[in-house]
């Protein structure tokens, strides 16, 4: 029996992963004890439930993090709380190292990253990248920039190896769909576009089209489940420098998507035109959407020649595709914002959470 800690369990991805783990009726996760790290008393009450031990945890306090990991005998950390602040990962890696010393058993750390770091507009200069490539880590180091996600990835690989922790990095693509967690139900990007469109009474699209990799939240949660199951079954999935897993189910055609959003919102009287207009500038788009100007093009139009192979080797079979399901569910995306949008962070704030 393992003890698994999910951080960011009140968030969109973390909450959905926790729900997926808790719903397992067979396999090694069913026999494990689930722990959920959250920030507030209110979130503790919301996330606690049958089979889930919620912990209010201050990730800036190494003593508190280490005590939480040791007292609950944590073997696996699924870290979804931040992809950009490596100090949070450092606290958890240090704590897992102490757990390994006490238990004498292997410990594991799964980091949620950001896939746009591997696209050209995200600063990736090497062209096509496959998650099965054996030089991804060295290429990330070789770029030598200060991209916060890339710096976090590099730190995790190096620090985990030094501490004897087995690590994995799942760089999240554009994720959509209604989450299944108990707190935050909505993703970052599409709901923010819808909120901004309602405020401006106009749907805007970027001057350049994009087709970023994407996955429905249910498919993404399934991939986390497959990876943790593989770990618990001692199948030794590739880790550390070779531990990159790209969760790509399909791509999102942004211009077509924004046009469908405009049509769906106009039908509800939420915007003045059934057609999307082009932003007058990327700076204006960043300011209205709450995106950092430095990363607005990468976050809004990035495509990249990014290829997923290792998730499928684990047995991942996404149920959501572009044509038959995603584009046909745009009305549902609008409806979700109207029905369950109780937490309304900016895009950048949500990424930092």
What is this structure's SSE topology?
Blueprint: E1 3-7, H1 12-22, E2 33-38, H2 41-47, E3 52-56, H3 62-71, E4 76-79, H4 86-103, E5 108-114, E6 129-130, H5 136-143, H6 148-163, E7 166-172, E8 174-176, H7 189-200, E9 204-205, E10 213-216, H8 217-232, E11 250-251, H9 254-267, E12 277-278, H10 282-289, H11 296-301, E13 306-307, H12 310-313, H13 322-326, H14 330-340, H15 347-352
Parallel strand pairs: 1-2, 1-4, 2-3, 4-5, 5-7, 6-13, 8-10, 9-12
Antiparallel strand pairs: 10-11
Helix pairs in contact: 1-8, 3-4, 4-6, 7-14, 9-14
Written account of the structure:
This protein has a six-stranded parallel sheet with strand order 3-2-1-4-5-7, with helices on both faces. The chain has a three-stranded mixed sheet with strand order 8-10-11. A two-stranded parallel ribbon has the order 6-13. The chain has helices at residues 12-22, 41-47, 62-71, 86-103, 136-143, 148-163, 189-200, 217-232, 254-267, 282-289, 296-301, 310-313, 322-326, 330-340, 347-352, and strands spanning 3-7, 33-38, 52-56, 76-79, 108-114, 129-130, 166-172, 174-176, 204-205, 213-216, 250-251, 277-278, 306-307. Helix 3 packs across helix 4 (86-103), helix 4 (86-103) packs parallel to helix 6 and helix 9 crosses helix 14 (330-340). It has two domains: 3-175 and 215-242, NAD(P)-binding Rossmann-like Domain (Rossmann fold, 3-Layer(aba) Sandwich); 189-212 and 250-306 and 317-352. The protein is of the alpha/beta class. It is 43% helix and 14% strand. The protein is globular, with a radius of gyration of 20 Å. Pfam families: Epimerase. This is NAD(P)-binding protein. Residues 4-82 form the NAD-dependent epimerase/dehydratase domain. It comes from Polyplosphaeria fusca. One of its GO terms (cellular component) is cytoplasm.
